[in-house]
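ok here's DUF3459 domain-containing protein:
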Amino acid sequence: MDSNGDGIGDLPGITQRLPHVADLGIDCIWISPFFKSPMKDFGYDVSDYRDVDPIFGDLADFDRLVARAHELGLRVLIDQVYSHTSDEHPWFEESRASRENAKHDWYVWADAKPDGSPPSNWQSVFGGPAWTWDARRGQYYLHNFLSSQPQLNLHNRDVQDAILDVMRFWLERGVDGYRIDALNFAMHDPQLRDNPPAPENGKPRTRPFDFQLKKYNQSHEGIPTFIARIRALTDEFNGVFTVAEVGGDDAVREMRLFTDGETHLNSAYSFNFLYAEKLTPELVCQSLAEWPDEERLGWPSWAFENHDTPRALSRWCAPEEREAFARLKMLLLMSLRGNAIIYYGEELGLTQVDIPFDQLHDPEAIANWPLTLSRDGARTPMPWNSSACAGFGSTEPWLPVGEDNRTRPVEAQEADETSLLAFTRAAIALRKANPAMHHGAVTECRHEGDLLVMRREADGQILEFRFNLGGSTLPLEDCQGAPLMTINGASQSELPAHAAIITEMSA
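and the structure:
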């Protein structure tokens, strides 16, 4: 929500719309970065960790947001970027000034090779070498993302202390937890060894980054030790929740390390579903099998959509299937063992908006056009009503609303008890009311073609879940128990396309 008409959503706009979020029945909100930033990567390039960028408001606006959220029974998670800063951050400005100043090793600096080439072959996520030459120091600095996002040297204890001070600053302002961005990029190999080439996997390679195994530029063994320091700090405050973003080829092992026992983070999520081209029963069972209900093993978080990936309804089904598939997708998300993360507008059934090149803001999409699908298409304004600006608050928002999404505003769905919005509320309420669905162990997960069958148990309750992830009717022969919820015409004898049934069994 844009509260001041400048085309950009802001903190007062979030505060204004918090009742909608609370009415969903969710527990907390996660807000993407709102800190001072040149906005080269839309807030993920922080120039001041302790202040709000003026385009989003000010610290008083943030305090009011937290207070209102708490009044509504919501907790507030904020996004923290600890692997890198903006090149306009005062820490970097001091660090690049000389090789002798107090912050000379707060970032990752290295000499050129004898031939003047970069210190290693590492490639950046957004394309091109992960090293940029800086004439002030006569050295290269590391950046795993944009060249304007220099890599912090978290091997340095002073840098860790500074990051922990930032965490304490926001905890003392009342935040309830953190989503930590790109945490497996937080430390590098100090020897700067070259990454080996990646074997062919059959997928097209659109960036130099895709040609390497990321063995040395990320995923250093020292990261869990730093995470233990984060946990020691958050344990000083009551009920603080931490969840890490962990992507890459070694994500499962790293997520388990990052959430090990009671001395590390509370949860982590990867990209099992976010980058999946298709939602399949096999994918669901594989993902759940990575997080069995075992001692010390962390609690997973799941998302089908987020700010870095295309809308799921545009990835996973044909346009004519979207109404039924949206319900199936939401009920499945609520049925997985772990935290369920809903991306804004997912409760309305929003789809990916096609953004023309001249309206793109996403630096990755601009750099790799047209081979990278723009992330901007999933960051478009929320449609609140049928007005010209869809209720966003500005006649010329920073991105177009999208004609398809204009047809699904909150206002219209509020008045329709059969809407996806109403169903989302019901699915969340069902999850909260049933312990097996809320926190139960997965005691069975099997797949037969398009049929997904799960069993979950907790506190003496046993639930069985059957989802048809395909487009044809499937017969059911062994569906026992009392129906708890059915969707899209499901019965205990058959599942039409994209139908599902949840039954409660006798203990």
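+1. Residues 11-85+155-191+220-427 form a domain with the TIM Barrel fold (CATH 3.20.20.80).
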